[in-house]
Write a structure and sequence with these properties.
Elements lengths: L10 H12 L6 E5 L6 H13 L14 H7 L6 E4 L10 H10 L10 E5 L7 H13 L4 E7 L7 H4 L3 E4 L5 H10 L4 H10 L4 H9 L2 H16 L4 H11 L3 H23 L11 H10 L2 H18 L5 H10 L6
Parallel strand pairs: 1-4, 1-5, 2-3, 3-4
Length: about 325
């Protein structure tokens, strides 16, 4: 047992959920919001353990070692249903919600509650979102639904109003840096990851444990720099290549978005909030060439591109339009 359910940060959310379990006042539905990697799923699973633990060391806590706790941690508990799109950036379909509605009518198999975890619910298509409404209105008393999403604005107001909303916020960079150092990162790596993750502990830990995403980032930043000096013909060739893999395109746009955001912060005079601290020279050079209106347009193009990719637009045309608006780095 830990004081904070094995989480770093979000103490207020843990305290509230702990009290709900201890006093048997849990709601029938919760919505946990916050950016990717901030700890939404981790908090949801900790709450599920507290709800199902058979030997809690204190009211509202969980032992972490009983069968229930172990199965919840592995996301293999018979009374835990995990519903999500097939891949990040994909689409959660109405058929998945229809199957869910059938399963919740059954009594819990071995736990006190049946816990339904709907991850990244902003990826639900309109039909799936509407189908969930009826479930939220008619869920049996032994069912607890936990939704996660980036923010409430992405969901139907009628869904949000039927949930207890917990908005998670990033933790401070110094606190995360200390935590990463305790987890085995050297001082330089801890400083870099705490900035790059923008206070998202889960994302920072994933970067610490798996170097592949950092390697992808370096590759994409190298391509970003090259594109800033490339001719229009080379940009068209890159767009054609990028459009062949939509998941790679989406991840590329997320990295571009992060860089343009840093350039905008630099132009606006907020250099302390820059996350790509290893690319400070590039960010400074771009900030010297662009005004706030210009860089905001580039930032919004990446944001819009991520949204458009989900809607099956012509990926090659999208890439070409985005790249043609880029400045030529002098």
């Amino acid at each position: 047992m830990t004081d904070n359910w094995d989480l770093i940060g979000h103490n207020w959310a843990v305290d509230m959920l702990r009290q709900h379990v201890a006093n048997n006042t849990q709601r029938h539905a919760y919505l946990i919001t916050g950016s990717r990697g901030i700890g939404r799923r981790t908090l949801a699973l900790a709450f599920a353990r507290a709800l199902t633990c058979v030997q809690p060391p204190a009211p509202g806590e969980f032992c972490g070692s009983c069968r229930e706790c172990r199965q919840i941690t592995a996301m293999q508990h018979p009374d835990l249903n995990v519903i999500q799109a097939e891949k990040e950036g994909g689409m959660l379909k109405v058929e998945q919600i229809r199957e869910l509605r059938k399963s919740i009518l059954l009594a819990p198999y071995q736990a006190k509650y049946k816990v339904i975890l709907l991850l990244r619910f902003q990826e639900a298509n309109p039909s799936a979102a509407n189908a969930l409404l009826k479930t939220l209105e008619e869920a049996p008393s032994k069912v607890i639904l936990i939704l996660t999403a980036d923010n409430t604005e992405q969901l139907l107001p009628t869904i949000v109003s039927r949930c207890e909303v917990l908005r998670l916020h990033p933790i401070s960079t110094p606190k995360l840096e200390t935590y990463l150092h305790e987890m085995g990162a050297n001082k330089k790596k801890a400083q870099f990851l705490s900035h790059l993750s923008a206070g998202r502990a889960g994302y920072a830990l994933s970067l610490l444990e798996d170097e592949s995403e950092l390697e992808l980032r370096q590759e994409k930043i190298h391509e970003f720099k090259t594109l800033l000096t490339d001719t229009r013909v080379k940009k068209f060739a890159y767009a054609e290549k990028l459009a062949k893999d939509k998941e790679d395109f989406r991840r590329t746009l997320l990295i571009w978005l992060s860089l343009w955001r840093d350039v905008m912060l630099n132009v606006a005079g907020d250099k302390e909030s820059i996350v790509n601290i290893d690319q400070y020279e590039l960010i400074e050079r771009l900030a010297d060439q662009l005004n706030l209106r210009e860089v905001k347009k580039l930032l919004e193009a990446s944001e819009k591109g991520i949204w458009q990719l989900k809607r099956n637009v012509n990926a090659r045309l999208l890439a070409e339009v985005i790249l043609l608006d880029w400045p030529r780095l002098s």
